[in-house]
Predict the 3D structure of the following.
Amino acid sequence: MTCLFTRRKLRGISGIEINKMLNTYTQSFQISSFDLNPNASARLTSLANYLQEMAYQHGKRLNLGFHDLKKENHAWVLSRLHLKMHHLPGWDDVITIETWPRSVDRLFVLRDFKITNEKGEVIGNATSYWLIIDMNTHRITRITKDIMELETREDSVFDAKSEKLEMFPELSEAYKKTVAFADLDIVGHVNNVKYMEWCMDAIPLETHLNHELVELEINFLHEAKYGEEIQLNCSGSDQMFMVNAVNIETGKECVRSRIRFR
């Protein structure tokens, strides 16, 4: 589910900084017109794309990037993401994202992100849970030192642990989606930001236009494949919505998300 895209050259911005002692990677981005929603602020999905790129770029510099794992028939898979914005940047704003691996257990690598504006003020935070899968069997690979030895930082951007979202009761059908070519990433799977877009499209337009989307929690449960029919279901109010996506043929839940507006 890793997304790769070309890094833009920013006007007057060096962009990249690595602190090897703290195992931290920092990069700056300029918000472009294609990052914006109809309210002229950055889409959460655009910011999520930047987070993915940061994870890839840092992983590459740690010799744990997409191409490094591919040599061993392994790949990173995003299992869980919690992104919360205190302020959404606008067109031409420059944001700086700092990321670091926070902890490793037998299954997950936790990676945190801090987003700041040009004044150095924190405008958003995110935490993510990553798995490694065997590309041949699609089974999760337990992370041991012979697979990965990674220095981590203990500080977390959130006080509480991002727990797995519980099953949502009584969701209403929103719309059906056929997995298309544009949904697929470099390994032929539906990209995780596409799942986020599906979930946001299940929420009424009036909510998007009259409120500011500031927080997303999403769990990736089962992959969807090209041509499959997906049912999006939604329930909520002006401030918070629960959305999931279910494979119509198999009945398996692909994603489960909680989306908050301000």
Q: What stands out?
A: The longest strand covers residues 122-134. The chain is about 15% helix and 35% strand.
